[in-house]
Amino acid sequence: MSRVFNFSAGPAAIPEPVLKQAQEELLDFRGTGMSVMEMSHRGKVFMDVAHEVESDFRALLGIPADYKVLFLQGGGKGEFSIVPLNLLRGKKKADYVNTGHWSAGAIKEAAKYCDVHVVASSEDRKFTYVPKQSAWHLSPEAAYVHVCTNETIHGVEYFWTPETGGVPLVADMSSHILSRPIDVSRYGCIYGGAQKNIGPSGLTFVIVREDLLGGAHPWTPSVFDYTQQAGNDWMLNTPPTFAVYLAGLTFKWLNTQGGLAGMERINIRKAELLYGCIDNSGGFYSNPIAREDRSRMNVPFILKDEKLNAVFLEESLAAGLAGLKGHKAVGGMRASIYNAVSLAGVQALVDFMNGFARRHG
Ligand code: PMP
Question: Helix, strand or coil for residue 16?
Answer without folding.
Answer: helix
